[in-house]
Design a protein that fits this description.
Elements: E1 2-6, H1 8-16, H2 21-35, E2 39-45, E3 59-62, H3 66-76, H4 84-87, E4 92-95, E5 108-111, H5 116-119, H6 129-140, E6 145-148, H7 151-161, E7 168-170, H8 185-194, E8 202-205, H9 214-222, H10 226-231, E9 234-237
Parallel strand pairs: 1-2, 1-4, 2-3, 4-5, 5-6, 6-7, 8-9
Length: 246
């Protein structure tokens, strides 16, 4: 089977030199499917630049503005323009990163991590929120099947996207094998020295935005006795997302 595969967020992360959770998911799943000899054809919206040498060569770059295409497809009920040649090369499309196109005759499977914009609107940026939610919900309707990461998210998506629960499959995220490789004490010590980190430190890793609740982590650390704080400093590692909680 020839599988179309969404790489927009992954390739954008490569350009910014920062992969978020969806980018990492997209990258690792691509490599695992490639190991299984799947015939993958990546698709990126918005065109390419020199940074895409880090993305596998089997991909198509469309000079299409995704949001404009969504608006056009939602209003007119027509497929995305400029995708006919790409469709002719695939049998199925997997939208890994919430960039879900409307295609002519190709079935679409999409991975939706959660329904947070609807369940907890206070956790997402309010800029164009209603428009973004409309587009998110509309594009999800174009899918034959939805993949999500937990039974909890499955029920949220069914409720807020008005998608029958029978069309949603819960598939917990896997873990890259590299995380099971035990590092030697010498390697650990060298890494700590290189990054000037003390043994026993608390470390948070993630994009800095309100829903990560970083403020509460900092407050909790400040409530520790001084001796504990000095023995176990707190490191916040992540790229700024948005909001004053970051």
């Amino acid at each position: 089977m020839r599988i179309g595969y969404g790489i927009t967020v992954w390739s954008q992360g490569v350009e910014r030199q920062h992969l978020d959770g969806i980018g990492i998911y997209t990258k690792n799943l691509w490599h695992e499917l490639s190991e299984q000899k799947c015939n993958l054809q990546g698709l990126r919206f918005g065109g390419c630049d020199q940074a895409n040498h880090a993305i596998p060569s089997a991909h198509e770059c469309l000079e299409l503005k995704f949001n404009r295409q969504v608006a056009r497809a939602a209003i007119l009920g027509v497929p995305f323009s400029g995708t006919a040649r790409f469709e002719n090369a695939i049998d199925l499309y997997h939208a890994t990163d919430h960039h879900i196109p409307k295609l002519r005759n190709t079935p679409i499977v999409a991975t939706l991590m959660d329904a947070i914009p609807f369940v907890h609107p206070e956790w997402v940026s309010q800029r164009l929120r209603l428009l973004k939610n409309f587009a998110f919900k509309k594009t999800a309707q174009w899918c034959e099947e939805i993949i999500t990461i937990s039974e909890f998210s499955k029920l949220d998506i069914a409720e807020h996207f008005n998608i029958p629960v029978e069309r949603i499959t819960s598939t917990p995220l896997g873990v890259n094998q590299s995380f099971f490789e035990r590092k030697s004490s010498e390697e650990i010590d060298r890494a700590l020295v290189r990054h000037d980190v003390r043994k026993g430190a608390f470390i948070f890793v993630g994009t800095l935005q309100p829903r990560k609740n970083v403020r509460r982590i900092i407050e909790a650390h400040r409530r520790l006795p001084l001796a504990a704080r000095e023995a176990h400093p707190l490191l916040i590692i992540g790229k700024y997302g948005w909001g004053d909680n970051a």
